Input
Amino acid sequence: MSDDPLMKAWQDSHDEFLRAQEQFWRRMMAESPRSFSEEETRSNADDAWEAARAQGQAWFEELATGKVFANLADEGIARDTLQRALDPAQFVNAGSGEINRAIQKLVEGPEFADIGILERQELKATAEWLALRDASNELRRVTSKAWTRAFVRFSEEQVQNPEIWRDGLRAVIDRWLEIANDELIAHHRTSEFLNAQRNLLRAGMDYRLRERDLVEIWCETHSIPTRTEIDDLHWMVYELRRDVRALRKRNAEMEQKLRAPKKKRAAPSK
Amino acid sequence: MPDQNNPFENNPLKDAWELSHRLAQSAEALSRIKESDVDVGATPKKLLWQQDKVTLHHYEPLDGVEVVTGPVLIVYGLIGRYTMADLQEDRSLVRNLLARGVDLFVVDWGHPTRADQNLLLDDYVDYYMDDCITHLCDVAGVKQVSLLGICEGGVFSTLYAARHPERVKNLMLTITPIDFHGDKADSDESHGFINLWTRNLEDEDIDKMIRAFGNLPGELMASVFQMMTPVRTLTKYNLDLMDAAKDEKRLLNFLRMEKWLADRPHHPGAAARQWLIELYKENRLVCGTFEISGQRINLADLKMPVLNVYAARDHIIPPPCTRALAEHVGTDDYTEIELPGGHVGVYVSGKSQGIVGEGIFDWLMQRL
Output
């Protein structure tokens, strides 16, 4: 093992992580392989996700605030990648959560610390906010069906082929991922999933536009230019630039014509 | 008998320990890498022309390599950036072509902001591209250029070549959608999710999205791409990262791809509306009803030699979407090259690199 304090801190936290998981793994060994019902699987899966999320979050916070990141550059792709590697949301959100998360992030934007607090509070009581929450939950519910089907298929396969555990955890993980991939891809093409996702996008946009309405009222009250006014300006500039470019092009063509050697006029026939 | 006092005795615990150890090694490897090590699009090039956010560059010929072709302009789209063609030194289509003596230029659309929300595909094709080509022709002392379009940039190139055929010597397209409903003819369930996803949206949803953000946010497109490979998304920052971290070169390549993926510009709103509604949903290009600057685009106006490169396992642009071009071009000099991998593999797979570089060069040399 490395003498590097970074590595030691990391390894210690991993050992601690594993010790904390010992009961879980022993139970897995005792219970595997056996088949789970769909309801049982959904409940187990929820518990497992919650536990993993809590554990991962605690782990991440400990490492992120400790010495582990000290050797990394303050910013850059290597640091971003390591943060993603430690982010339990990478697992929790896989399947549908990426777009869910992207929409939430885009919609919510930065929370201003000192302006618009009242407006933001007001927003979170609007029908658009509630619709956004509902659409987000519905997408999670619809996506969980694919995960549940994958868990059931995986547990049934274990019953039929318990030998897979002898090949090591990586083989088990690979097989699990293969099944999950098939189920998720098939699920993404169903109209139930596509509609749930479209509804989330729609709700996200409605919320965003409602937010803009409220913020614009606030801006107008405080004599600050609104988004709509700036968009109007962008439109005017765009139109003007198109005109300027078209004129420049026409001028260039005319100049070219003027520069071109003039053809000699044919002598008038006598 | 397993030793009950040793938590690492049974297989899952031992494997889990090994996994965590490898994750620690990955973290250590990451901590050694500086941002400047992760260089993408690093092949030297010279700025020739700039307008608004658009730039035209000329790649410097490689030492000791004689230029043997006329000018070739690489045209990437607005979804992602041109650096894909020059991701790393040993897997760079740009270097591959330069090494063979191709005179290479590239147009970069930059990073559109909300101020660019009103730009149409018409502006990109009839203004920016046309100005680039005018400038390039002046610099190179020629009247025509060969276009090498990539993905959405392939559509730009197609539109330009149909509008201004007199200025295009050869049209080379790679992984370019032409029939946006072609995915229906692809039986592979993992192909064509973007086509399906877009068709499931109402026009009003797209309008509202563009009204809300001004542009089509790069983050949104990135998340749709990630959904196409759900497990890859799940394993990328653990299993894949740990595999990559085994050697520094692989790790750097992993990070270069991450850097490219993170560099996803917003797509100007008005152009995104045309892209999603008029092309993806209404499939106007092959129907002959798509218009640029008020003029219908007729693919039969493509009378110059056409090379169409597609990837057999392209899940983003399924092969039937690309290959449909054959039925519509107005030339008998039409060639296809099939590559074995997927969409991005055309540019980063070692196997595809040789085929695509050599294929394009050989085809071009026969049409000087």
